């Protein structure tokens, strides 16, 4: 069986649960030789994921690291630890994030949002990917190859009422992806965004929403975290060479197609209008299949 990530080293932030855990397991199954999973506080969660990956019987080395992505020093330390223990980092998945539950238990207008929670969301979801990417990107440039995957969300929900700053933080991440992709053009390092495609059954679901679902006051479909894995593996692999500044949706991946066809169907045009100036990005604003 082909292992598309053979000899590749990855860092996955927020790798102790939810989407991060699913991607860590998925990358191990895809043959990654080393995976560093980080979390801001719970080493027990990270070690549980490590045990789960080891139980697969793969040769993947797993390094759990407690690191707060809002700290530039902690990010640099995590990257250095990964390089020493596993080898030069090829793949960075910026998955660590904080959701709307940090500002309230239910959807509320922005002026009712808890100020401390607002700051935590922005620090984690916007500054965190920047600090982690900044810590690792020079190594990738030197190697002439690298993958940066920024985990985003459904574009329609970014500007939904009573959903800031979480939605806005992901819109900012989408903009940074486009900018970084152009900064890194010609280096062999690509930057893309990946969204699951809808609500995922993780801790990001607001308590009030869960209660309404429990009482059957609302019906809501939740994706399993594994929905994001096939697209993540493809983006992390050499099969996506030359693809940068694009946006992909895990739920649109069709496993019955070959990977290139599945990837093109899973791609969405950028959430922003194309620039009036010339852009070095080619696929970013085109619709799938064009």
Folded structure, characterized:
- The protein is α/β, with parallel strands linked by helices and 290 residues long.
- The chain has one domain: Rossmann fold, CATH 3.40.50.720.
- The radius of gyration is 18 Å and the shape is globular.
Blueprint of the fold:
Layout: E1 9-13, H1 18-29, E2 34-39, H2 43-54, E3 61-66, H3 72-85, E4 91-94, H4 115-143, E5 146-151, H5 166-183, E6 189-195, H6 207-214, H7 229-236, E7 247-249, H8 259-266, E8 267-268
Parallel strand pairs: 1-2, 1-4, 2-3, 4-5, 5-6, 6-7
Antiparallel strand pairs: 7-8
Helix pairs in contact: 1-7, 3-4, 4-5
Question: In a nutshell, what does this entry contain?
Answer:
The protein has 290 residues and is α/β, with parallel strands linked by helices. The protein is built from eight helices and eight strands; from the N terminus they run βαβαβαβαβαβααβαβ. It has an eight-stranded mixed beta sheet, sandwiched between helices.
Distance between the termini: 31 Å
Query: What can be said about the biggest beta sheet?
Result: 8 strands, mixed
Structural class: alpha/beta
Query: Regarding CATH, which class?
Result: Alpha Beta
Strand content: 5-15%
Please give the radius of gyration in angstroms.
18 Å
Q: Tally of extended strands? A: 8
H/E order of the elements? EHEHEHEHEHEHHEHE
CATH T-level fold name = Rossmann fold
Average pLDDT taken over every residue: 93
Helix content: 25-40%
**Spatial shape:** globular
The spatial strand order of the largest sheet comes to 3-2-1-4-5-6-7-8
**Number of contiguous helices:** 8
Overall domain count: 1
Low-confidence stretches: none
> Would you identify the CATH H-level superfamily?
NAD(P)-binding Rossmann-like Domain
Query: What is the level-2 CATH architecture name?
Result: 3-Layer(aba) Sandwich
């Amino acid at each position: 069986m082909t292992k598309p990530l053979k000899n590749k080293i990855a860092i996955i932030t927020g790798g102790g649960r939810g989407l991060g855990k699913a991607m860590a397991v998925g990358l191990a199954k895809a043959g990654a030789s080393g995976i560093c999973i980080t979390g801001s506080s719970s080493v027990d969660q990270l070690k549980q994921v490590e045990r789960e990956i080891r139980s697969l019987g793969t040769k993947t080395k797993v390094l759990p690291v407690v690191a707060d992505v809002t700290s530039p020093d902690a990010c640099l330390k995590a990257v250095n630890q990964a390089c020493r223990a596993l080898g030069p980092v090829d793949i960075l998945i910026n998955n660590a994030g904080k959701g709307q539950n940090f500002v309230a238990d239910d959807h509320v207008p922005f002026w009712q949002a808890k100020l401390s929670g607002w700051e935590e969301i922005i620090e984690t979801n916007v500054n965190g990917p920047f600090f982690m990417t900044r810590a690792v990107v020079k190594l990738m440039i030197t190697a002439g190859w690298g993958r940066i995957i920024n985990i985003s969300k459904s574009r329609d929900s970014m500007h939904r009422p009573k959903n800031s700053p979480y939605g806005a933080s992901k819109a900012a991440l989408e903009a940074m992806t486009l900018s970084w992709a152009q900064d890194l053009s010609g280096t062999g390092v690509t930057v893309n965004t990946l969204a699951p495609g809808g609500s995922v059954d993780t801790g990001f679901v607001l308590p009030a929403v869960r209660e309404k679902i429990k009482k059957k006051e609302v019906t809501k479909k939740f994706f399993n975290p594994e929905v994001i894995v096939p697209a993540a593996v493809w983006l992390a692999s050499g099969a996506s060479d030359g693809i940068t500044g694009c946006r992909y949706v895990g739920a649109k991946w069709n496993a019955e197609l070959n990977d290139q066809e599945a990837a093109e169907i899973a791609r969405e045009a950028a959430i922003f209008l194309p620039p009036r100036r010339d852009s070095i990005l080619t696929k970013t604003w085109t619709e799938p299949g064009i």
